[in-house]
Amino acid sequence: MRHVALVLALLWSWCGVAAPVQRRAPAEPHGWLDLARWGASRGLGARVGGKGLQLDLVGRSTQISFLADSARVVLDGTDIRLGTPIRRVGDRFLMSERDLQTTLQPLMSPPKRPATRPIRLVAINAGHGGKDPGNIEGRRQEKLYNLMVAGEARRALERAGLRVVMIRQDDTFVELESRAAKANNAKADLYVSLHFNAVQGPGSREVHGVETYCLTPAGASSTNDSGHHGGGWHPGNRFDRDNIVLARMVHRAVTGGTELEDRGVRRARFKELTLLDMPGVLVEGGYMTNPDDGRGIYTPEGRTQLARAIVDGVLAYKRLVERGAAE
Ligand SMILES: [Zn+2]
Questions:
Q1: How many angstroms is it from 157 CA to the middle of ligand 1?
Q2: How far is the CA of 313 from the centre of ligand 1 (A)?
Q3: In this predicted complex, what is the ipTM?
Q4: pLDDT for position 79
Q5: Is 121-323 assigned to CATH 3.40.630.40?
Q6: Which among 94, 128, 195, 216 could bridge 267 via Cys, Cβ 3.0 to 4.6 Å?
């Protein structure tokens, strides 16, 4: 039988036609997708390295790297976290269908905005406030630094010709539900929430970098979940495809425009993000507990640099989705 196949293959090649594939690759398990095959359908070549544990999909202007058993994907240099780790089965790398639909696909083909609905109004939320100080490092309270960066971001957005609605303008407490409601009532086109991180315990001073969050898709795991708890649908999930693109553009601008290390575009079900009527992100712009990040957070120059980078990301997103072409 094998001889017959060989002779047939030779005959095909003699005729100047490629030999037909003798064996089809086995079908993917339900809910999973073969990344090399997906890449081929988009003109991306597959390259396996890292002792067989890393898959790179490479195109003319794109490189996406996947690691077996890891939820971390590097897309053109930006760290993006999936809901489910990549599985390697035999020599194939498999991604969950949900991650494809809610993360990879929109990043590769960003959704366009109708020409009649350009981005004009951005809601800026300074996290915490009033009785809620947020993270505390010595005598420094997160809420105050959030507010200062929010003011800088407002000025940068207005200079770029956009209008801004500030969720809070002073040191007052606002419920999380009211923050989303204020943005919704103002009919803001985008929502950007500003926070700073902190971590306690041994080795905590070494933890540093920026994390950009957007809402976890329904049924998926959030990045910082210890287990794999799914979660239900929220109004903010109407914008899953926009959320991840906005998060990526903001994150890329911040990692490129500041000294902050890339800790990834991550997923969380933060209350304010669950309730939004528009795409939204939450930026954790560095660790208050790290001396290097602190130089950015605790100086006016550092905060201006961060605010401008975030606004650059918002403007890059606006250009991308308003004209709909890949950048
Ligand atoms: Zn915070």
A1: 22
A2: 20
A3: 0.99
A4: 97
A5: yes
A6: 216
